[in-house]
Amino acid sequence: MIVAKKVGLSYPDGTEALKTFDFHIEKGELVFITGPSGSGKTSLLKLILGMEFPTHGSFEVLGESIQSDNTEKIQMIRRSMGPVFQEFRLLEGRTVLENVMLGMRFLDLPLHTIKNYAIQSIERVGLGHKLKHTVDRLSWGECQRVSIARAVARKPVLIIADEPTGNLDKENAINILELLTSFTDTDTTVIITTHATHLIEDFHNGVFIKMNAGDMQIERRI
Ligand SMILES: Nc1ncnc2c1ncn2[C@@H]1O[C@H](COP(=O)(O)OP(=O)(O)OP(=O)(O)O)[C@@H](O)[C@H]1O
Ligand SMILES: [Mg+2]
Questions:
Q1: For ligand 1, which residues put their CB under 6 angstroms from it?
Q2: Using a CB cutoff of 8 Å and minimum separation of 24, what contacts does 102-105 make?
Q3: What is the pLDDT of residue 120?
């Protein structure tokens, strides 16, 4: 699913965000990326999403090489990914249902199927009672849930969430993590970053990637 061989990432200004690393992530794995601010978590996600390219080494996601000369194929595999961005990127003035359906507009499916998938995923995140509410009236945590519903509605094989628990108290943060991890199955890989290591203490199975100033320490717990 994801294979990195001697990969490193430096930004044009010379910042070495990711020092040379190797890893592989299999289909169906749950991956937590932890580490302090500036340690390279988002940079690693950007590589996986094909939003940055490695400065050296070979990086493959869903069988495609993440390189500047492969952008068409990268666009294709992006459709199999469900990103949950830190800043949500929801459309104001639109309802919960509209926001989720808009995230699916490029799918080659009949409108009623899109609508059914959207409603299913909104119910799954616990907002079935707010389908017709505009997102402007929702709390931060509810917006986070809409953003998750939008990411999962198109049934991606790779769900990627950057700091999904950002502004939440511990109880709600754990609820969000449990919701996200519940999407892991034999075909679906879930990757979550957080700087709050105490939040993931109760998760015992998965791949734990600890970042520290661009260095990576990887532990697989089964
Ligand atoms: N576009 C960029 N150009 C130059 N440097 C960058 C760029 N993006 C990130 N960096 C630097 O790369 C390093 C890693 O940043 P990154 O955003 O990956 O960290 P992070 O672990 O996600 O931090 P946070 O927990 O604050 O989100 C930092 O030193 C950051 O300043
Ligand atoms: Mg970050």
A1: 11, 13, 15, 17, 35, 37-43, 195
A2: 102/150, 103/150, 103/151, 103/153, 103/154, 104/153, 104/154
A3: 96
